[in-house]
Automatic annotation (TrEMBL):
Keyword Transcription regulation: yes
GO cellular component terms given for this protein: cytosol
One example GO MF annotation: DNA binding
UniProt-listed PROSITE patterns: CNMP_BINDING_3 (PS50042), HTH_CRP_2 (PS51063)
PANTHER family hit by this protein: CRP FAMILY TRANSCRIPTIONAL REGULATORY PROTEIN, REGULATORY PROTEIN YEIL
Protein keywords: DNA-binding, Transcription, Transcription regulation
Xref: CDD domains: CAP_ED
Entry-linked Gene3D superfamilies: Jelly Rolls, Winged helix-like DNA-binding domain superfamily/Winged helix DNA-binding domain
Name the record gives this protein: cAMP-binding proteins - catabolite gene activator and regulatory subunit of cAMP-dependent protein kinases
Length: 234
């Protein structure tokens, strides 16, 4: 992981902020001040950007690649809470806690880069620019809605239904019948609230029934309508 010192200070940071919809309509002078308080960060897959429990002094605007939010169970298993790609933020809402500390470990899922935005500078800009504060609040409200729906789904669906929804969603993101699952089977199981053995048993059942194929790590949906039927039966 590398802090990049550009021969043209803060140009890349300013361009990244200017391109983000949160800063539409914000004056150039204000953006330049925020850029001056920011630094460009490059990371490789597996790099730790932030650690869970670490004091928050900056948030990350991901511009290239992807960063995962991870926690670890007492048994050492990983809980991947989500993945942030270009245009997404990591730890931005945490800046507004009474004692800001990172809620997750931020681990690079791929090589990339982003803008480390100083927390105090961003808070100051929110106080001066109500439209920016409103956009940050809207982001927080959308996350609350998303996580409420997720909790409802986890507590009202079967393990097979949850896995079907996840696989179909990954296929939709990939725009193909060959979804990139991105996580290990153990990580997917933890994310979906089931044991790894349960996930393996469901996948084996789907293979026997001809719903999917999985050869040499290549996952393919053969009968998407059958997986959708599992969701419609909820």
């Amino acid at each position: 992981m590398t802090i990049v010192n550009s021969p043209f200070p803060q140009i890349r940071e300013a361009d990244s902020l200017r391109a983000h919809p949160w800063f539409a309509g914000i004056g150039e002078a204000a953006l330049e001040r925020l850029a001056l308080a920011s630094t460009w960060l490059r990371f490789d897959a597996g790099n730790i950007v932030f650690s869970e429990g670490q004091a928050v002094t900056a948030c990350l605007l991901v511009c290239e690649g992807a960063v995962q939010g991870v926690r670890y169970t007492a048994g050492g298993d990983e809980k991947v809470f989500g993945q942030v790609g270009p245009g997404g933020w990591f730890s931005v809402l945490t800046l507004f806690q009474d004692e800001p500390r990172h809620l997750h470990t931020a681990r690079a899922a791929s090589a990339g880069g982003g803008c480390l935005v100083d927390g105090q500078a961003l808070r100051d800009l929110c106080r001066k620019e109500p439209v920016l504060a409103e956009r940050v609040l809207r982001h927080g409200a959308n996350l609350i809605r998303h996580h409420t729906d997720q909790i409802d789904w986890l507590t009202s669906s079967s393990a097979e239904e949850r896995l079907a929804e996840y696989v179909l969603r990954m296929a939709q993101i990939a725009d193909t019948g060959r979804p990139a699952l991105m996580l290990t089977h153990t990580q997917i199981a933890v994310k979906l609230g089931m044991r790894a053995e349960t996930l393996s048993r469901i996948l084996a059942k789907w293979r026997r029934e001809g719903l999917i194929s999985c050869q040499r790590g290549a996952f393919r949906i053969l009968r998407p309508e059958s997986l959708r039927d599992l969701l419609h039966s909820v």
